[in-house]
Amino acid sequence: MRADPKIYRVGPFLIGFTTILLDGAASGPCLTVAPHPEGTDVFAFMCTTFIDAVRACFTRGGFARKDGERESAGTFLVGYMGRIFQIGVDYQVAERAVNFDACGSGEQVALGSLHTTVGVPMRPDVRIERALVAEAEFSTGVRGPFRIEVLDGQTAQRSVEEEVSDV
Questions:
Q1: Residues 6+ positions from 65 with CB-CB distance below 8 Å
Q2: What angle do CA 128, 95, 149 make, to 5 degrees?
Q3: CB 153 within 8 Å of CB 92
Q4: Cα separation of 160 and 73, whole Å?
C-alpha cells in the first residue's frame, strides 16, 4: 500500500501511473511541457510536444531505459483537454474510441466494468469507483483506497483514475 498518490496534476494534465518508474517523475518539477499552440490538433500535440517533454524528463531523472537504440519507460494515463491518452512503454500515444481508459494489472477488468455501464444513467465518478472495486476483487495487484480526480472543467468520465495496478 502506497502513502503517495498514483495520480498527479502537472499543469493542465492529470497523470496517473502504474509503475514505480514514473513515481516522482510525473509529480515533480522535472516535467515541463511547452504550451499547446492555438490551432494545433490535441492528438498531434500529445504525440510531439508532450512526448518530447516526457522523454526529456525521464532521461534527466534516470527513468528512461535504453536497450541499444531503443528507449522505453512505463505505461501511464494522461487526461488533457477533456480527453484521455494512454502512453505506452515505447512512448506511443493511444486514444481509445470510447471515452474511458485504464492501464496496469487490472486494466481488462476496469475496461469491462466501464463498458457494461456505458449508457447507464450513473454519475461518472460512481462508474469509475465501481470499475476500481471490480479490479480490486479480480486482480491481485489492485486495492484501495482509491482516489478519483476530475480534469478541471471536464467530466469525471474523462478523468484519470488512480489506478489499476502495482499497489
A1: 71, 72, 73
A2: 35
A3: no
A4: 19
- Segment among 14-18, 115-119, 151-155 with least mean pLDDT: 151-155
In this structure, how many other beta carbons lie within 10 angstroms of the beta carbon of residue 152?
10
Domains in the chain, ordered, with CATH? 7-156 (3.60.20)
Calculate ∠ Cα 4-17-22, nearest 5°: 80
* Residue whose C-alpha cell reads 500500500 in the numeric block: 1
Distance in angstroms (rounded) separating the CA atoms of residues 41 and 158? 18
> Quick one: pLDDT band at residue 21, thresholds 50, 70, 90?
low
Q: Are strands 93-94 and 83-87 parallel, antiparallel or unpaired?
A: antiparallel
pLDDT digits over 34-46, tens only?
999 999 999 999 9
H-run or E-run covering 116: helix 107-116
DSSP string, 124-150: HHHHHHHHHHHHHHH-TT--S---B--
Q: Reduced to 3 DSSP states, what percent helix, strand and coil does the chain have, rounded to the nearest 5?
A: 30, 15, 50
